[in-house]
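hi! just following up on the protien thing from before. the input was this:
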Amino acid sequence: MPGTAENETLITHLEELRACLLRILAAVGLLFPVCYVASPGIIELLVRWSCPQELGPLHYFTPMEVFFVQLKLSLILALAASYPWNVLQIWNFLLPALYRKERRALGWWILFSSLLFFGGIAFCAGVILPMLMRFSGSFASAGLQPVIGLAGFLSLAGWLMLAFGIMFQAPIAVLILVRLGLISADSLRKKRPFVVVVLLVAAAILTPPDVVSQILLALPTWLLFELGLYAAGKMESAKDREGEADR
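and the predicted 3d structure came back as:
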């Protein structure tokens, strides 16, 4: 019966999705203890790299604060370390429903999206976070000494890294919009002032309430948007040439 066949297909898909999620959770669970052991060294490295001497040592204000900070960091590290495996599981779940051309496009999208995401995190950790902490340390004086908590610093660092990873997806977003025909590259060029405003608003939402962080996030994102716009224009030109050749 058609209805029975459809129900069986739905149940099969749900079971495959459940198995996919269980494999992802298993990978994160296996990596979590390793990341917990490594978390003190990573915290020390991040603090040493990012915090200038003017800020002095970081502090913790409750007995269990460091423990909970290490737990949160360990979960983030486990998710990051298992990212290739997790993406592979999701990819294997989606592939049977896609055509060969769509599979190839999805593979390239995952690859470049991952590179941009981790590139944004690396750029934030290597350049932006130390710059921001040095800016904060510049306000210290003999009569004004900073007292920065470990949880506050790592919360700022984690939130900024996530924001940069997300905003660095701008070229992918542009290419997908143009690829799907939702908007043309020429229309995006004409709407560039509105796009810049949207990027500034998004940067203001994703970063702490200070102008420095917002500008440091919005500027590279705008440059990446321009890169995506250039690539989208090239993609449209190639598509038009293929259409003319088929006629």
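The chain has nine helices and no strands.
The chain has a mean pLDDT of 80.
cheers
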